[in-house]
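LAB NOTEBOOK - FOLDING QUEUE
OPERATOR: T.R.
BATCH SIZE: 2
PURPOSE: Compare the predicted structure-token outputs for two unrelated chains run back to back under identical settings.
PRIORITY: normal
REVIEWER: second-year student, initials M.K.

ITEM 1
FIELD SEQUENCE / FIELD STRUCTURE:
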Amino acid sequence: MLERSVHGKPLVYLDSAATTPKPQAVIDAIDAHYSMGTANVHRAAHELSVEATEAFESARRRIGEFIKADSSNEIIFTRSATEAINLVANAWGTSSLEQGDEILITAMEHHANIVPWQLLQERLGIELKVIPIDGDGMLSLDDVKSLLGSRTRLLSATWVSNATGTVNPIHEMVAMAREAGVATLVDATQALPHQPVDVQSLGSDFIVFSGHKMYGPTGIGCLWGREAMLEAMPPWQGGGDMIEQVTFDKTTFNRLPWKFEAGTPHIAGAIGLGAAVDWLSNLGMEAVAASEAALVEKLAATLDAIPRVDLIGRPTHRAAAVSFMVEGLHPHDVGTMLDQHGVAIRTGHHCAQPTMQHFNVPATARASLGVFNDDSDIEALDKALRRVIEVFG
């Protein structure tokens, strides 16, 4: 993919925050499952099913090791980080919350960490409180502390903003919540591809992430939860594989992790995600973090030096993404014209409309980085964007 041309120009892919390209190792793992071992998991004694089950569960184990989980039983496969948050809202939320309880989120959340709680608000009468952000797109730990009240039951916060690249002080936020006796959920979707993640040192009760943001396939994501929390939660969806025994009078449920995995899972997706974490592990996440930290600083500085370009959000700690506006041009026009130069960026509200409202913009252009990007990609963006501004005047 990265060797192809777009509109006669070499492709410069700067949209990894939306989805990452897939390494050949991931493509090969998925292809091997479909071409050599297509079978359902957990359901048959024949060799192909045994092989598929082992590949599926091996991926779960390796993903657990990647984030330092205590047990692979704590890794629940979902369709996405979005579904993982909905799982927590519907399984933990409906069984643990009551009218008047509060959930605390930040003003920079993706819609996936807003809407499920609003739906729960309508059903249960809970309250949603929002930690504000400042003009640089950052939040204050003082605001977190002041909003953690006696009725707060959950802090659900993003680690890294998909809209501005802001890295939140998530370890401190989780520690403050735990001290107040408040459960925590961390959206690690934009963090996991860019830095080491250790759920034990983080101390959260839940984290969620998506495969396609971390060089894996689409349609697969994960919920990690503390085993005791997951054990106490009722199932969210019913069907095959999540049961122990079914009669017309009563159903008893399977043990973890399968209690939350109703129906035939995305087998190839899990296998592909396992290959992706192997690939990232071989690169070394400390090395990935160091390389990308230097590159995103150059990206921000390069954009900031272009006349008529205004950065949206200026956090002191940023991860792999920079949003910007061009004076006099709509972001969609900027993105369309950059595409003519072979430069792929994202334009729109980035599923973070409250963040756009905070900055009083309808949308932004966003350039985001992956492990495959280098200085030449930033230089190509610089040249193309200056040319777009020159042409439009």
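ITEM 2
FIELD SEQUENCE / FIELD STRUCTURE:
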Amino acid sequence: MALTYALLVQGAPYTHQAALSALRFGRAVVERGHRLKTVFFYHDGVHNASALMTPPQDEVHLAEGWRSLHRGQGTELLVCVAAGLRRGLLDEGEASRHGQIASNVAPPFELTGLGQLLDAMEHHDRMLTFSP
């Protein structure tokens, strides 16, 4: 029986193993016939949504890995808006609203509130947390 999964990622990319472990777990879920429906980025994990992330070519590109899951599975890539704003991560709407000249969060990543995390906890079969 296929299950729906949600992941909570709290680790910044390239700082701790949490983000890479979450991405690898998400891929494994899909390979085993389950559905990775939602990934929620919280605390320093919001940095996974940076459109400016440019790792060396011989390293795993975490943001591209998340985008690939979105393209292949329709996985929601949700970013806590409060945690993102505190850390300088804004989409076009938030940049405009706060009078900033640039944005650095682009679709398919979506700034959203903690209500979406609670919704994922309630409506998915499994939820796993990846923290540093």
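REVIEWER COMMENT (ITEM 2): Strands lie at 4-9, 35-41, 76-80, 109-112, 126-130.
FOLLOW-UP: none requested
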